[in-house]
Amino acid sequence: MTIEDVKTIIKGDETRRLEVKKSTGELKDGMRSICAFLNTDGGWLLFGITPTTLRILGQDVTDNTRKEIAREIAKLEPLIDIPVEYIDVPGRPGCQVIAIHVNAAGYWEAPHAYDSKPYIRVESTTIVMPLDIYRDRLMRSKVNRYKWEDQVCEGITIADLEEQRIRGGVRLGVERGRMPASSLLETTESLVEKLKLTTSDGQLKNAAAALFLHDTSQFPQFLLRMARFRGTNKNEFIDNQRAYGNFFALLDAGIAFFFKHLSISGKIVGIMREEKLEVPVEALREALTNALCHRFFHNTSSSVGIAIYDDRIEIENSGHLPEELTPETIKQSHHSFPQNPTIADVLFKTTFLENWGSGVGRIMDACRDAGLPEPEYGQNASFVWVTFKRGAIHSESHTSSPYNHTTIQVRHTTSMRPSKVKRLRTFLSVVGENGANLKTLMEGMNLRNRSSFVNAYITPNLADGNIAMLYPESPNHPMQSYYLTAKGRELLERL
Questions:
Q1: CA–CA separation, 280 vs 260, rounded Å?
Q2: What is the pLDDT of residue 218?
Q3: Is residue 257 over pLDDT 80?
Q4: What pLDDT does residue 272 have?
Q5: Cβ 428 vs Cβ 492: under 8 Å
Q6: Closest Cα to residue 126, out of 268, 242, 28, 211?
Q7: Where are the domains of the chain?
Q8: What CATH number should be reported for the domain whose range is 223-389?
Q9: Omega of the bond prior to 111 within 30 degrees of 0, cis?
Q10: Cβ atoms 261, 294 nearer than 8 A
């Protein structure tokens, strides 16, 4: 860690996830904040910075200073190993900033206490955790060991997991401050252990399989059902698919299905074409993430489903809402009660899931911003579902061809050299029905120069509206994938 990293961290002033102190003369107060970070969203504690002006002064660090910090860390319960970093301050010889970073404990883990008192963070303030919250979290932590996700996954090893998925998620966690920067240099085995995907004796948990297992054939419940129905009932299929795989593979398959069957509008922003689904992709992605994360896994006949009708979209998962929530109250501010806390904690640390029950609020905000009604939630004895209303009745001819410029582009391709048409056809074929990330696309095209590939294939096809990004709001997202739009699929059929 460098002084430039410190400047970046304090740029936003004191927040829910940042506390600065002038010196370790306020060590006890700082450790209360560390306890609160552990019980809330994680965060940074920095000594050697003036709270009012955010001036980086540092302080003199002696052996006694280090011992005093270690003694106070030892007062945290349950006992936790917290790394402490000391950063030299340029121009101030002998002065160092002391930096302590902690990740949030999962809601289903025992709450942390400092000097026998638990604390939580409310905005930029540290307070004693209310007794009812403390008792609730303590009770929930005691049943975690019996959950399916924390049982040993027989017969799999680290080599069976998708390392690229693990490291991509860790990189996101580091960028968002949910994991320490040192995580980027650790081995896959160490990362899996720190994500709490191993048992006390080092065996992989079922949660590791649900998130990262490459070959999931031994888990029939790792299933996503996808259907496009004609009209507003289930009498007639237009498309009926099934996808098997880990969390990320199923998320990719579901997003590809949305891109295949939902209308897309586009506008030119700068030199790029910006594509928008009729229902915001961020809302659909959040809802599908929730379904894949919070579903029942122990039942091998359970699954997650996507159903697209002319007037609505339904996403369902096996399970039920927590006892604390109903289809009505889930839209209100609420705590997070994950069905699978270990899986949810990994997805939180890798930024695929938010903490503290904020996901439903973001879904509603995205729909509201797009001028759509708020989604509706429902449940029965076996399933929970969310329903998104579509803007108008959509016939299949409309969903398969929402553009009126496709034929113009096809005519344009007739003037292209045959070799260029062939490359375009190959590229669109490699993107395929389920989409692909940049590495897969380059391998499929047998090309190695990333910059040239992006300039020759990704940028022009995004601009023409033939493909769209899974994370359009974050073009450099390490999990970025590209999908054929309806326009791209029609063009591929005509080439």
A1: 14
A2: 93
A3: yes
A4: 55
A5: yes
A6: 28
A7: 3-142, 148-212, 223-389, 403-494
A8: 3.30.565.60
A9: no
A10: no
Residue 149 reports pLDDT greater than 60: yes
> Alpha-carbon distance 492 to 495, whole Å?
5
The two structure tokens encoding residue 330: 């889930």
CA–CA separation, 112 vs 129, rounded Å?
Answer: 10
For 103-125, what is each residue's pLDDT tens digit? 887 656 789 999 999 999 988 89
- The average confidence (pLDDT) of the chain is 86
Q: Which residues pair with 44 in a beta bridge?
A: 18, 101
Structure tokens at 285: 């992605």
Cα–Cα distances in angstroms (integers) from residue 262 to residues 231, 313, 333, in the given order: 14, 10, 30
Q: For residues 36 and 16, give the distance between their C-alpha atoms in angstroms, rounded to a whole number.
A: 10
Q: What's the gap between Cα 111 and its chain centre?
A: 24
Q: What is the CATH number of domain 403-494?
A: 1.10.10.10
**For position 388, what pLDDT does the model report?**
96
Between 373 and 393, residue with greater pLDDT: 373
Report for 31-40, 177-186, 313-322: range of highest mean pLDDT: 31-40
Residue with structure tokens 């002391």? 98
Euclidean distance between CA atoms 210 and 166, whole angstroms: 12
DSSP string, 311-356: SEEEEEEES---TT--TTGGGS------SSHHHHHHHHHTTSS-ST
How far, in whole angstroms, is CA 190 from its chain's centroid?
Answer: 21
Residues written for the chain: 495
